[in-house]
Amino acid sequence: MGQGKCAPIRQVLGKSKMILGLLEGIPTMLKRELAVFKMKPELHYGDDDCPISILDSFSKDAQLNFEIELIEFSKIKERTTIGYL
């Protein structure tokens, strides 16, 4: 763990394109927690409904490990549109 530093990525759960394993795992985390999610193919890019495209040469049958640090989180207000007649 902790092999490198990457720039933080801002994601909105339920709105951003995200693999199922992260969509299910991130809400279980606490602020500043570092977690490793070990995912079977049905929870990552091997899922037929995966919203993220990958190269054909990528192995969709392998177990993948994702190291995630939850730096900050906050609830956002849902935007609504009001129509006038």
How would you explain this protein's 3D organization?
This protein is mostly beta strands. 7% of the residues lie in helices and 14% in strands. It contains one helix and two strands, in the order H-E-E. The chain has one helix spanning 20-25, and strands at residues 34-39, 64-69. A two-stranded antiparallel sheet has the order 1-2. The protein is globular. The termini are far apart. The model has no long low-confidence stretch (mean pLDDT 80).
Quote the beta fraction. Answer: 5-15%
- Apparent shape: globular
Unreliable spans are: none
Oligomer: single chain
Largest sheet: 2 strands, antiparallel
Provide the succession of SSEs.
Answer: HEE
**What is the first-to-last residue Cα distance?**
57 Å
Number of helices in the DSSP assignment: 1
Supply Rg: 16 Å
Structural class: mainly beta
Would you report the number of β strands?
2
Brief rundown of the structure:
The protein is mainly beta and 85 residues long. The protein has one helix at residues 20-25, and strands at residues 34-39, 64-69. It has one helix and two strands, in the order αββ.
Strand and helix map with partners:
Blueprint: H1 20-25, E1 34-39, E2 64-69
Antiparallel strand pairs: 1-2
Annotation keywords:
85 residues; mainly beta; 2 strands
